[in-house]
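Annotators were shown the component list below and the corresponding predicted structure, then asked to write short factual statements about the assembly.
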Amino acid sequence: MKARAFDYMRPKCVQEALEAFVSADGDASYIAGGQSLVPALALRLQAPGLLIDIARLDELRGLSIADGHLRIGATTRHCEILGSDLVREHAPLLAKAAPFVAHPAIRNKGTFGGSLALADPASEFPAMTLALDAIIEIASVEGSRRVGAGDFFIDLYETALQPGELITAVYVSLATAKTRTAFDELARRRGDYAIVGAGIDAEMQGDFVERMRIAFLSVGSTPVRVGAVEAALTGRQLTPQAIRQAQDVLGTELDPVGDEHTPPEMRRHLARVLLGRLLGRLEANV
Amino acid sequence: MSGKVAISLAVNGETIEALVAPRTTLADFLRQDIQLTGTHTGCEMGVCGACLVLLDDRPVHACLMFAVQADGCAVETVEGLTHRRAIDDLQKAFHERNALQCGFCTPGMLVSAYGILASGDEPDRDGIRDALSGNYCRCTGYESIVDAIETTARQRRQQMAEDKA
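Structure shown to annotators:
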């Protein structure tokens, strides 16, 4: 339960961090909050020769409005998301999901970018970047590139990040007067991994759905957008009938994984229940 | 590879200069290098909450960071909180309510409770349970711990009201 020996460095800028990774021939890992990496090191699931500590790089910090988007610096901690007025106003879905992320002490250290880079399919923020169609900014020694959340999550713990690449920021479109959001999850105990969770980001005119994005967590090897459900609701009024139909579509669209506690049928059922609740909240605008 | 690194950090208000191996967790550093054994190591993977300390005044797991990462930071352990009498009332309430049996989880519980109460709000029982969701106790069933924190929150609120009046 102790990490293998490694070297440690704290670069002064992102460029230095990126170059250090290359110099280590890839036998390195970036560390920010470390709330998933440190246990992985302790369990020796990973054993890099060098840890590059990016937690204090100013370039990666903070929440701001930039180019009509909310910019979330990669090392913004979960507790900062939770306490931020900017997030509440401009990305209400993230504000609603934040209290569900892990436990308070983990939120005090864990970072937004770290959560995305790990891409745990049971995590809240990766799924919500999908529901928000966020843009992920990635740096490497070759330069910077941007990837849409829809192209970022590839498979279990596998993302569009190439070795040595680093998430620098995430950009979320600003909520408008029409925006309505809802988030909830079903877990055996608050703070534990959800059996199933979901978030919705919608634009609505009265009861009519103009646009809706729905993402689920804990239902597969990646966070999952449910396009068929979104299509079934777009342009419609959120009546009890429409909600029931959406639940039926979800039942056929979702192909959830099972585990020793939760067979796929149970997870599918709970996902339908959850979808119904969330759509009910959108309709009631609460 | 893996030479020791010089760090300087404040622990319970005292500046500590030390050479640490990068792989040494903050929990092991506190317990083994500077003999502050009030911080307990249980699961050593961020699940049980027995190792919580304050890092720059926020509760964090001392097992989920390396001592090198705490360079330049202020760490406060349950010993520090006790010494500066920041949790006298909490400790008394834990005692009165039997909020511990074996006591292994108690330092982490106290640090979590300190974090809950530091916000100045008077949390309800659900809120307290929520905030303790990362702290395992295998003895008490949690009820008495929630009692103790709720009682302390109420007392502090009353004290503040009296001080104002």
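Statements collected:
1. Chain B has a mean pLDDT of 96.
2. DSSP finds six helices and five strands in chain B.
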